[in-house]
# Entry
Amino acid sequence: MNDKILEVEEEEKYVGVTIHSSLKPSRQCSEAVKKANRVIGMVKGSFTSRSKDIMLRLYKQFIRPHLQYAVQAWSPWLIKDIQLLEKVQRRFTKMIKECRGKSYNERLSLLQLATLETRRVRWDMIQVYKIINNIDDCFIDLEPCLFGYFL
# Structure
């Protein structure tokens, strides 16, 4: 552009989301986990109570948003990335007094939480429903695709 050679970038950060040239979300997952773990450390140091109600409110308010921020743009598909994100929720639920000694699925059931992967799949299904039923305008003409023109 204007006689300047553009540099090739391996990754770019835009509105808080890191996009790698390979389009793999691993870097973004690592960043999200690092932020969430930092907040967990602050919660551990700041709150002595480990009761279910308080801890659940803190998790939903301050930790889970780091794991879900703009997830539609970087939703992980690699098992290692999915497990990395899920590990944060596993770790936090172990801190809750009523959940000690229970399996991860038992803890989720007791706290009425879903896995982060289940939440992402649910959001994807809701978005597809909205697009198909013209509830959400996504600027895509689905007519040819629905009738097999792009198959």
In short: The helical segments are 26-46, 52-68, 71-74, 79-95, 104-111, 116-132, 143-146.
